[in-house]
Every structure is written in C-alpha cells, then in structure tokens.
Amino acid sequence: MSFDEMTASQREALALFVDDIEVLNALADSNRQRIIILLGSHLRTGMTVTEITGQMNLSQPAVSHHLKILKQVKIVGSKKNGLQNIYSLTLDNTLLKLEKLVASIRASLQDIEE
C-alpha cells in the first residue's frame, strides 16, 4: 500500500509513529527498561547515577549514557542536590504521546476492517 492509498487515519497513525520513534527506540533497550523500573521503585526519592549503577551490571558511564537518552525523550528528569543529580521518572508527557499513538493505530485498523 502506498502513502497515497492510505486513509486519513492511517496517515495520521504513521505520522505519530514517526514523531514518536525516538521514544519507542529509547523504550526498546532492556537496560533503559531496567532503569525505568528502578526509578519507578523510587518515585518519591529518585536515584543518583551511583545508586542506579549499584543496582545494575553496568559501568557508571553506561548508566549515564542511558539516562541521557531517557532525558532527551523526557522519560526521565533530574534535579541537582549539591554536587549530585537526582534522577526520577517524568512519564506523564510520554504516556500521553503513547496513548495517542495507540488510539490512532486502533482507528486506522478500524478503517481497514470496514
């Protein structure tokens, strides 16, 4: 099926998918998934890179790299506490984007079934 043959809802779903590809790629990595789960278990306090590193079989630079990617797509945020950064989940915007993508895909599938 070419782009011209797609329905409006299928084109919208494709556009949303392309717009959200960085979020989907960030979520696809198992180490980043583990970091998200760790931060989810520390919602009130957040965690430092050192604390996250202590819970994973990764080096501190590797954890920092994964946190940078998660920050870029706004899954994780940070705040300064003295010399340390405290990382925490900031999923609200990401969840809204993913919910909109799923709803759009569902609508495009209904077009195919009709």
Provide the descriptors you would attach to this structure in a database record.
about 110 residues; mainly alpha; two-stranded antiparallel ribbon; 6 helices; 2 strands; about 65% helix; about 10% strand
Provide structural commentary.
The structure is a single chain. The protein has 114 residues and is mainly alpha-helical. 64% of the residues lie in helices and 11% in strands. It has six helices and two strands; from the N terminus they run αααααββα. The chain has helices at residues 8-19, 21-28, 30-40, 49-55, 60-72, 92-113; strands spanning 76-81, 84-89. The protein has a two-stranded antiparallel ribbon. A hairpin with a 2-residue loop joins strand 1 (76-81) and strand 2. It starts with 7 loop residues before the first helix and ends with a helix. The mean pLDDT is 86.
**Helix residue percentage:** 55-70%
Roughly what fraction of the amino acids lie in strands?
5-15%
Count of helical segments? Answer: 6
The average pLDDT score comes to: 86
Query: Which structural class fits the helix and strand makeup?
Result: mainly alpha
Largest sheet: 2 strands, antiparallel
Q: Could you list the spans in which at least 5 consecutive residues all have pLDDT below 50?
A: none
Distance N to C terminus: 16 Å
Strand order of the largest sheet: 1-2
Q: What order do the helices and strands follow?
A: HHHHHEEH
Rg from C-alpha positions?
18 Å
Shape: elongated
Number of E-state strands: 2
